[in-house]
Amino acid sequence: MSEGGPVLRVAVLGCGSVGSQVVRLLQEQAEDLAARVGAPVELAGVAVRRIDAPREVEVPPGLLTTDAAGLVARDDVDLVVEVIGGIEPARSLILSALEHGASVVTANKALLAEDGPTLFEAAEKAGRDLYYEAAVAGAIPILRPLRESLAGDRVTRVLGIVNGTTNFILDKMDSTGAGFTESLEEAQELGYAEADPTADVEGFDAAAKAAILASLAFHTRVTASDVYREGIADVTAADVASAADIGSVVKLLAIAELNDDAVSVRVHPAMIPRSHPLASVREAYNAVFVESQAAGQLMFYGPGAGGAPTASAVLGDLVTVARNHLAGSRGVGESAYAQRAVLPMGETRTRYHVAIDVDDRAGVLATVAMAFSEHGVSIQTVRQEGRGADAQLVVVSHEATDAQLSATVEQLRGMEIVREVTSVMRVEGRDE
Amino acid sequence: MSEGGPVLRVAVLGCGSVGSQVVRLLQEQAEDLAARVGAPVELAGVAVRRIDAPREVEVPPGLLTTDAAGLVARDDVDLVVEVIGGIEPARSLILSALEHGASVVTANKALLAEDGPTLFEAAEKAGRDLYYEAAVAGAIPILRPLRESLAGDRVTRVLGIVNGTTNFILDKMDSTGAGFTESLEEAQELGYAEADPTADVEGFDAAAKAAILASLAFHTRVTASDVYREGIADVTAADVASAADIGSVVKLLAIAELNDDAVSVRVHPAMIPRSHPLASVREAYNAVFVESQAAGQLMFYGPGAGGAPTASAVLGDLVTVARNHLAGSRGVGESAYAQRAVLPMGETRTRYHVAIDVDDRAGVLATVAMAFSEHGVSIQTVRQEGRGADAQLVVVSHEATDAQLSATVEQLRGMEIVREVTSVMRVEGRDE
Ligand SMILES: NC(=O)c1ccc[n+]([C@@H]2O[C@H](COP(=O)([O-])OP(=O)(O)OC[C@H]3O[C@@H](n4cnc5c(N)ncnc54)[C@H](OP(=O)(O)O)[C@@H]3O)[C@@H](O)[C@H]2O)c1
Ligand SMILES: NC(=O)c1ccc[n+]([C@@H]2O[C@H](COP(=O)([O-])OP(=O)(O)OC[C@H]3O[C@@H](n4cnc5c(N)ncnc54)[C@H](OP(=O)(O)O)[C@@H]3O)[C@@H](O)[C@H]2O)c1
């Protein structure tokens, strides 16, 4: 690198789990980064809330500031990494950075899922890049492959395990037979779940990521509020055992599908066959399974969170954004949109697994089958287990609309011969 | 798109399995491609060997030619897709295309592994892109993630199942207990193996891909001739059963490791634990497992071959290359090299699994253990099975150099108490 050549100056907003690792990598990998970018990448400043909080990295003296707004407005800042999180002040800081001519990398799924289009338009207008690989599935390169590698293909479905906490809990339930509460407590003890686990357990985190994945995969605009969402708090040991009986496992899936020209985007627990690549995703790992017309079935697997893994994704974006900044060009943006309708959950086509305790009388099977057929739902398999007081029917349906399926279950619950509907769960990952 | 704006014109060299699907996608996806590139992408010509051979796609009249050299030299060709394969005329055509100002996409692993640097220098000199995602693991986006997503991280190891034919055969052997020959015949009947299976079975195809992966992962230059190579023809049903006994499965792995500043690049069958993400890669699927300092463990999975999947990867490259061509910029090239030494196989650190039929005498275990320790190899586990005439010892070593391990096995073979060494195989995919 010749002296006096260009230097890229980076402001890092936030120095917590992710930010501290970004700062560390910027220092440790300085030489490699310079070689890959084509110019040295220097730290211009690090914005935090509390100047004297303990940090996992040593920030060079004079670079820490509580004035994030002042930092992003500085003339000598070329690139801004936003790892504060949440909606404000993150949004205003990103918008200000773009207006002041910086290119931006962020890991902020909440903000992107709520208000991505505002940010993308600002980036477009400023002629700058806004990259956010780390916002979905942490370290796993999934947005870049969707956006660039599959740019000449047509993605038809995305199934993701995009929340490590819930995957850890469900994996525990599957491997130990424990219930939800017990498994959640174990996850909390081991640091895989927070004291208030709502965002993970109720599927809010996964829904934000589902919105981002659907937007990119189908070149449309989906926000978190468009996403149908069910968490895992109601998944029981009986559900997990029922899944095992049919050679399946329960996973919390973020699903985005293209049906004709509409998209279906949803987050809910589902049974998938153990032979499906997603079934072997254990513990807190994440994975995103992609189906496309030409490429077929792809899967991307890795750690979905953690300071260092997430920082790796941020740095990957930073190198691209820095190269573009230097060249005065932009990467593939979000501009080319087809605005597609989002299907309501009731109109989405799904399959159900239903286990029912029934009276062991002649004709019970026929009566239950009739309930399905009255709602236009055809049955794929039905298994009758036990005898007498313990008789149980396990039905797996063919595809129908979610409204038809849930109405069928409603009717079953009210039927005289049905003692209890012991497990209801959607089934995904079928071969077609 | 305003009329009279720029149009990108593509020459496709070769119209076989991959080329015909590239031509099909260029036609079917024309509208989406134009939106993503920012300009219409038009077919300028398709070069073949035989004008009137049957094709899997209808090539518009007048576009088929046998004059590939003339096609790439044409002024109105902006982008060249090379899907002929082999060294010549592919190399000369790519070099000519670059000299004439075109950007190039190729799927040609053989050429890249033999003479990549010549091509990269020509691209650099011409100021054009040379992309080749489809050359490794077909449809799976692996080169772009290695090159771009992990650009701020440090990759330490790559383990790949990059040959579908051999994975199909080994998977059959594992699931049915059949031998190599029988499984190869089944693969041939089902079209997973060619009539002459040498390139796949002997690991030549995997070695080419290993060279490309190592070069990209470690920013260095590795050619196919640097790659240590063992195929699967000697893998026996006994090896596969031995692997199963220790909860493992046999896979043909392409391995690239960074040890201090040297690289080890090799292709050989190895036992990996069934809990390893690569173990669940079935049939002819491919997967590449990547370990890096910050991101940790990532895996990329999908179809490693086939006309349409491979064409998907080609088109993904084509969109990027076309955007760069339009902007007058280049993507991340291969220029920033650290030239690293390639470790000879003997100096590479590996682990061995060795099964031995022994005389059932007192002191046998001690004698065998002594052979390992004399070569400086420490033993991780040893299991004694059977009694009398059927006594067997199964030893799994700790890491040592491959030379130490193979010398140990040599010595065992010559020992009086050893009736037969029934299985020797390297072990990979350890937790560290
Ligand atoms: N952690 C992960 O594994 C992970 C994975 C993927 C994506 N992400 C995303 O990455 C982002 C950061 O997550 P994190 O886990 O690193 O969060 P964190 O540990 O809570 O760190 C947040 C940082 O932001 C700083 N901050 C808060 N308010 C600020 C303000 N008004 N001005 C300036 N700085 C402010 C905090 O300063 P103080 O240190 O002074 O309090 C802290 O350093 C979030 O968008 C998250 O969704 C995280
Ligand atoms: N097939 C896969 O699944 C796959 C996967 C990954 C990568 N690849 C790579 O993709 C490339 C193409 O593979 P493929 O399977 O498509 O091969 P293929 O089916 O054998 O097709 C080769 C094509 O090249 C044409 N050709 C041969 N010599 C030529 C010459 N001198 N001038 C002009 N055209 C010539 C042939 O013309 P005719 O049709 O007239 O004979 C044919 O159309 C290879 O580098 C391969 O390694 C293939």
UniProtKB/TrEMBL annotation, chains A, B:
It holds the Pfam family ACT. It comes from the Bacteria. Residues 353-426 form the ACT domain. Gene3D superfamilies: 3.30.70.260, Dihydrodipicolinate Reductase, domain 2, NAD(P)-binding Rossmann-like Domain. Pathway: Amino-acid biosynthesis; L-methionine biosynthesis via de novo pathway; L-homoserine from L-aspartate: step 3/3; Amino-acid biosynthesis; L-threonine biosynthesis; L-threonine from L-aspartate: step 3/5. SUPFAM superfamilies: ACT-like, Glyceraldehyde-3-phosphate dehydrogenase-like, C-terminal domain, NAD(P)-binding Rossmann-fold domains. The keyword Signal does not apply. This is Homoserine dehydrogenase. NCBIfam families: PRK06349.1. Signal peptide: none annotated. Its EC number is 1.1.1.3. It comes from Nocardioides nanhaiensis.
